[in-house]
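so i finally got all the pieces together for this one. its two components total, 541 residues if u count the protein bits. some of the lines might not be protein, just check the labels. i wanna see the whole assembly predicted at once instead of chain by chain like last time, that was a mess tbh
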Amino acid sequence: MRNGGGNVFRIAAGLVSGLLAASALANAPASALGKGDRELGEYLSSMCVACHQLSGRVSGGIPAIVAWPDDQFVAVIQSYKDGTRDNETMRTISHRLSQDEIEALAAYFGSLPAPKTP
Amino acid sequence: MSLNRRHILMGAAAGTATLYAPAVIGQAKPRVVVVGGGPGGATAAKYVARDSQGAINVTLVEPGASFTTCFHSNLYLGGYKTFEEITHSYDELTKKYAINHARKTAAFIDRETKTVNLDDSSTLSYDKLVIAPGIDLKYDSVPGWGREHETAMPHAWKAGPQTQLLKKRLMEVPDGGVIVMIAPPNPYRCPPGPYERVSMMAHVLKATGRTRCKIIVLDPKETYSKQGLFQAGWEQHYPGMVEWLGPKIHDGIKSVDPRTNTVETGFETYKNVALVNVIPAQMAGRIAHEAKLADPGGFCPIDPVNMKSRHDPNIFVIGDACIPGDMPKSAFAANSQGKVAANAIRHELTGSRLFPAKYTNTCWSLIQTDDAVKVGGAYEPKDGKISATETYVSKPGEDAAARKQTQAENLGWYAGIVTDMFS
């Protein structure tokens, strides 16, 4: 399922199959995709990718957040939410996210491939 | 429009697409036209095209082959970036997501027939239209200054040749010369922008040994974005070089004379000014006014739930041209609004899932090398407008490591957001 989700960003290669894969994701219950609602996560990720690159490329002071285990992703966002980690931007983002939304983001970003050259 | 490989591919997908396109069964593929290829327009075009995977025909109306960002143009002024580093081609965006790039200027919008007329007399029909024209300058807002004077007294508030001109003129200021910036009234593009620009001007003057220069800011506003942070930074890094005057002190701009480089206020007349930077009042881009999408205040009211125009259910207005509630007019905000609009457009045209609008913004400003500050927030639709749910601003007196980290974020954000917009 993770590989199928990756097709979302490869329009040129296999357009029709990508469309079918995305449709299958949209129609599948969240429980079948893992803990988080991946499609919700993809929408919410639009907040994150203004800074964090989908390719996993690291630039300046903005770290990569793709291909993390779901639990790790959730724990990091929680650490901003509870104040363990302190960055105003991330604190503000984390405060607006429900547990379901954090898990959705974890499912989406976790499904993306790690960059080939770190 | 000629038939090419892209259209054949898109046609192949159309049969599948209509299964999920209740609004267009029995019709041709739905058409989205985006007017303006800045941060808002490029983002909306990309997100509609990418996420609909060929089910929607997207056309971007933008005369330029590339876009020079206003954001980080101050870093170009300060010598931290080249002009090429803040200029981005549309090629990858349009090819990767099969976006039709109409290299034309939108002449006018016919809302009755749902068409955009281009400056070569051709027309584009739309099912949904995204208007992202950015700002137009009010050339009559500063007495004595007009469009014909923007070479003598540059505004540099639209990135491009004006930005390069301002830098050239800054480099020509002699030691001991006076620079006058006429700051804009609210609302305007990039609230901290004028003050970051002052910082970058002072940085360049100091770095080139011209510390006897003075930058005078004549502001029509009593307060401005990150005021305490900028003023503390100017005192720390550029002592005696920056003087900010609010309206109670300067008593208004009475006139400017571009022939003699004179600026007259109710308080003082500045003669033989080495560089006058006039940042005038602003309004939504022309096409939004002509389509009767703007209010008397000059900007376009929107539904905060989806960025839809209050005046037309088939038109979305995003970026600097809209009335964004608590959000500032910034590239980050335009990018965020473009994504909300794209989600709503896809839902209406193809029946894709509709998610609640969530907006974000952060504006970073560089004061001196490794000394950056930021302001930002999270926003949601509430009480009929885009309302802030939480905001933050850098704290006064932060240590150097925090400010350096903020600048590292700033540089990383730029790389991230131009990737998000243009590739």
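The interface with chain B takes residues 8-9, 11-12, 15-16, 18-20, 22-23, 26, 39-40, 43-44, 46-47, 49-55, 57-62, 88-89, 91-93, 95-96 of chain A (CB under 8 Å).
Chain A is about 55% helix and 0% strand.
anyway lmk what u think
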